[in-house]
Description:
The protein is of the alpha/beta class. It has two domains: 2-116 and 298-340, Nucleotidyltransferase, domain 5, CATH 3.30.420.40; 128-292, 2-Layer Sandwich (Nucleotidyltransferase, domain 5). It has ten helices and ten strands. The protein has helices spanning 33-37, 44-65, 85-102, 111-117, 162-172, 179-187, 211-223, 229-258, 273-285, 302-319, and strands at 2-7, 12-19, 23-31, 75-81, 106-110, 130-135, 140-147, 150-156, 262-266, 289-291. α2 (44-65) runs parallel beside α3 (85-102), α4 (111-117) crosses α10 and α5 packs parallel to α7. The chain is globular and about 60 Å long. It starts with a strand and ends in a 25-residue tail after the last helix. The structure holds 5'-O-[(R)-(carboxyoxy)(hydroxy)phosphoryl]adenosine (KG4) and zinc ion.
Amino acid sequence: MLVLGFESSCDETGVALYDTEHGLLAHALHSQVEMHAEFGGVVPELASRDHIRRALPLTELVLKNAHKSLQDVQGIAYTQGPGLAGALLVGTSIAQSLAFSLGVPSVGVHHLEGHLLAPLLEENPPQFPFIALLVSGGHSQLMRVDGVGEYQLLGDTLDDAAGEAFDKTAKLLGLGYPGGPALAKLAAQGKAQFKLPRPMLNSKDLNFSFSGLKTAVLTLVNNHQPLTDAVRKDIAWEFQEAVTEILTAKCMAALRETGLDNLVVSGGVGANTRLRERLNAAARRKLCKVSYPRLEFCTDNGAMIAFAGALRLEAMRLKTMQDKKPNYSFSVKPRWDLAELTKP
Length: 344
Ligand code: KG4
Ligand code: ZN
C-alpha cells in the first residue's frame, strides 16, 4: 500500500511516501526555523500560513523523487494532533481533500506515535516489546510499547519537557531559537566547573522534573554577571550532563523494572550526542540494545507520519475497510493523550 504522509503540527512541513512493501520511497521537509528565529520562538499564525505555502510543492517534489503520480497513492496519513491548532488544520484539510478527490482511505496520526515508531524505519528495527524514551519539545515520557497502539505510560515529566528545558536554558545563556542544538554545541566546548542538581534522580518512580534545573541555571547566571564565554560553555556542559544523567538513569530503571532488554529513543532531544553516548554505554553494560531514528527523523518529519499511518491503514484495510465508507470530514486534536490510542 502506497501512503502519502503529512506532518504540520508545529514549525516543520514534512511530506513523505511510504510503501508497505518497499519501505520509505521519498521524503521532504521544510523547516520554518529561520522565519521564527527573529521572534525567539514559534509564531502560530506564521506557522500555519507557511504550511499552506509549502505542503503542495513538497508533495510534488516527493512524488517526483519517488517516480510516482498522485494516482498511485493508495492511502493518506496526516498528523491530527497534538500540536498547534491552525498548523494541524492546514495539513489535515489538505490531506482529507486529497483523500476525497482520489477516493482513497485516510487516517489521522498521533504525532507522538509517529515519533515512537520512527526508529522502526531503520535497518535492523527493534522488535516489540520495547521501552521507549520520548523526549521532544513538549514531552518527556517513558513508555512500554507492546505493539502499534499498545502503549503503557511508565513515567512522565511533572513540569518542563526535556527539550523545553534545553530551550529555556539556552535562552538564559543568550542563545537563539531553537535552543537545544545551540546549547549542545556550546556544551561540547565546556568542562566540569559547576554543579547543578539532578532532580528526581533517586525518586523511586520513573517520572522526571526539569524546571528546578532551569531555576538553578538562572541562579548560576545571576551569580556570574557579566557572563563570559567560558562560563556560558561550562554552564551548558553541566546542564547537559545533568539532563542526560537523569534520562539515562530512568531508562535503565525502566528496563530493569520491566525486564525488557530493548530501548528505543525518539523525539528531538534524541538527536543529542551526549545522550546517545551515555545511553549506549549504560545499555552495553546491561547487555541491552538501544535504537534511534536517523538524526533527521529525531525531529519532526513526514516520514514518521507516513509510516505510522501506513501501519494503521494496512491494519484497517485487513479488518473492515471493504464494507466501511471512508469519512472525509475532519477535526484536529491540539491536545491528545497518547494513552487514548488503541490497536488498529
Ligand atoms: O521532536 P521535536 O522536533 O518537536 C516536538 O515534537 O517537540 O523536538 C524539538 C525539541 C526542541 O526542544 C529542541 O531544542 C530539541 O528537541 N533538540 C535538542 C537537540 N536537537 C533538538 N535538544 C538537545 N540536543 C539536541 N541536539
Ligand atoms: Zn515532534
